[in-house]
Amino acid sequence: MSTLNETLIRDVVSDVLNQLGTPDDTSAPAESPCACGKAECTCNQDPGSCGCGGKTALGDGKHGVFTSAEQAAAAAADAFEALRLQGFEGRAKVVNIVKTICADKSVEWGELEFAETRIGRLEHKVAKLEGIPEIPGTEWIQPYGMSGDRGITMEEHTPFGVIGAITPVTHSIPTIACNIINMVAAGNTVVFNAHPSGARCAAEAIRTFNRAIEQEVGIPNVATIIEEPSIESFNDICNNEHIALMCVTGGPAVVDAAMKSGKRSICAGPGNPPVVVDETARIDQAAEDIIFGGGFDNNLLCIGEKQVFVVDAAYDRFLQAFEKAGARKLNSQQLATLTSEVFTFREDDGGCSHAVLNRELIGADPCVLAQRAGLSVPEDTPMLFAETDADHVFVIEEQMTPMIPIIRVSDVHEGIAQAKISEHGYKHSSMIHSLNVEHMTAMAKALDSTLFIKNGHCLAGLGSGGEGYGSFSIATTTGEGITTPMTFTRKRRCVMVNNLNQF
Which CATH architecture has domain 274-468? Predict the structure, then answer.
């Protein structure tokens, strides 16, 4: 298979740099004494003294960490054949190991990821890992049988083989853990290319998972990872002969590159989730839900509330409720100042000016944003907000900060129409606070989003505060939706003609 177009690959890097905050040199993570990233670590003098394995354990193929995509994919292909021999029992053991380790190490790994990525909130890094045991596992793989006069038929769900997975910095270890659970439950193995700014903690998780899996199940390299993720390793994974399927979480350029690789791809693309609040809403509850969802991990979640359209009849009450719930309002001057801090504008090759996020402020705490705006707020402030027009840059860009724009609209119909414009047709996530079923139905049909939450915060759409199950890969671009083990299977039909039907 030919390599990906070089211009497309360079666009991927530009997209990642602009949105997720890596150093300008993406060829490798910055040097540190050890894989753990701790400045005080002495592993170079005493390998493994901090428990992470040290530099000597990195990239040598031990416990799933490799220097090249070719090595990682070949090892995962061998692991797939070994996993196949162990059947559902072996898969279930791997899934349980990953879930148990994430629960046991939630605080340790939350701190590790936060120390490396420096975005979001530590307590929410921990909370995401604590939720990993609820991810769907082997119990989701169920056959479907048919029996009649002409015999019997069984439809089963079989694995693809080796999956290539691209993961974001916003949820590095949780996304890797979730993907392993879903993919291995389906019978696959996986090769990861983590975001460079979360590469060390991702590699540490892979090493830990593989040690435990090999010890208990006897299979090495069920999940592998590239030690130093780069443009080239992304390209190599997309084109490797062992890779049967791609699973990608990222911005438009990353998704576009994966879909042009020639591999079937399951793609979790961008989102810009809007909220509509109408005159029938429980206003206090709506304010609390939006602050909780939009403020979770400082609005790094792709499902998080990003902009709020409030009908005129409820507008003043909603602003009061928002402040009462703890959010702090920016005046017009403070908003203008913060806007100039969060966004810059550049001329692209088409001559059109477009917004670029300041990488330093992605996932920053509200108090940091407030300081940039010329305002002092308590450190525990959960959210900033400001009144804006519908075409403000904070509305139209997926800005990943805990500063939510609030827009006044004449009625729910205008609110839904503006919400649809702001969501850009990503069909990712949307929310409404209303007691009017017709209003809910109208928004559901208009936005056609993968997640649509009524009278709750965004996390209710992933089983936290609402019914259902969770996942850190939500395939909006390619339409699979919230991924489960079934997402990573191929349907197979086995037919016995005129026999084995017992009636």
Answer: 3-Layer(aba) Sandwich (3.40)
